[in-house]
Amino acid sequence: MEWRRNVWFQTNQKSLERRKEPGSLKEVTKETKQKSSPTNPFSFLEFSTVASQQPAFIAPSPDHSPPPQLPESLFPAAFFFSETSHKMEESIPFIIDLEKISEEKECKKLREACERWGCFRIINHSIPLTLMAEMKSVIGALLELPMEIKKRNTEVIAGSGYMAPSKVNPFYEALGLYDLGSSQAVHNFCSQLDASPHQRQIMEAYGKAIHDLAVKIGQKMAESLGILGADFVDWPCQFRINKYNFTPEAVGSLGVQLHTDSGFLTILQDDENVGGLEVMDNNSGSFLPIPPLPGSLLGNLGDIARVWSNGRFCNVKHRVQCHEASTRFSIATFMLASRKGNVEAPAELVDHDQPRLYQPFIYEDYRKLRVSNEMHTGEALELLRIA
Ligand SMILES: O=C(O)CCC(=O)C(=O)O
């Protein structure tokens, strides 16, 4: 354990030094502020910055052992405060330690994160660090394949296959599959891309581990609202691997536009070196950068989480900004909605004081509603609102 702590402290020092350099996140944030103009749609937004240093790379153990159990005090990066107010009471209770999730305090923290932000970091999640690192290297190789091979990755549902760089997102491309819980779907994806036996093995192991994790976190989110026995095992998961080809010209522009995820819960392995993800604070409309926290994952709540919780949980608006000319990768697992029947809040979450907010609907219909109306930030929910 000692050597891991040493790696952490040494690299963390470097990270602190880097933060002071021109071009660091803080500097770029300032620059973005200065550059904003009446023609910039985001010019009214106020940026906040990270209060303290981010932990650095934690070397993976060679034996697929569980992630190191670092105490929360070693993860100060998860606490933010507003650059203008500097009030620590605005900090986000943001890190969820899955090893402690059966404790009341941690479960309450999960509920608060879901209600206030719709977003939280996950530590001690039990996905081996080596598997995460190997998966990153597999997706790097798959996204390097020639275009004609990547184009074989066709859609099963809208948006589930290959996405080439486009006019809207010129620096972004992605490969994907529907659905991760199906070994046949994973097999088909690997075959489309001529994956090697090793790449298949990693995809299968990662797919199973991350699917199980999404199910577990879904259950804990439900428990945090007092719903026991909610079962997410059969909820389909869309899977997407993202690459951001950030060139020097891309600096200052968006890698992915502002959006909410349409499903219930997204588990994101964001790039451990290259930041850029920002979430919107629904209270103020300002953006918070989410700096990398190596070895952790991120939980993002989508539109279905808002409906299922009868308005208690927040669907987080987020986007990816290019801050540096560097390739960024991320791996997203979207747990969508129940395969059977309607999307609706369980009866336990509906009563006289909190009447049902949304009419029950089929998830696929909701997805089409979003696409056909070009409503990418959850506005389509308003079309289904009944209270
Ligand atoms: O790359 C990221 O960090 C975010 C990706 C994302 O928002 C998405 O895939 O929906």
TrEMBL record:
Residue ranges of domain Fe2OG dioxygenase in the record: 235-338
Listed Basic and acidic residues bias regions: 16-34
Highest rank taxon of the organism: Eukaryota
Function: 2-oxoglutarate-dependent dioxygenase essential for auxin catabolism and maintenance of auxin homeostasis in reproductive organs. Catalyzes the irreversible oxidation of indole-3-acetic acid (IAA) to the biologically inactive 2-oxoindole-3-acetic acid (OxIAA).
Record-given protein name: 2-oxoglutarate-dependent dioxygenase DAO
Family stated for the protein in its record: Belongs to the iron/ascorbate-dependent oxidoreductase family.
Region (Disordered): 16-41
Keyword Oxidoreductase attached: yes
GO molecular function, one term: oxidoreductase activity
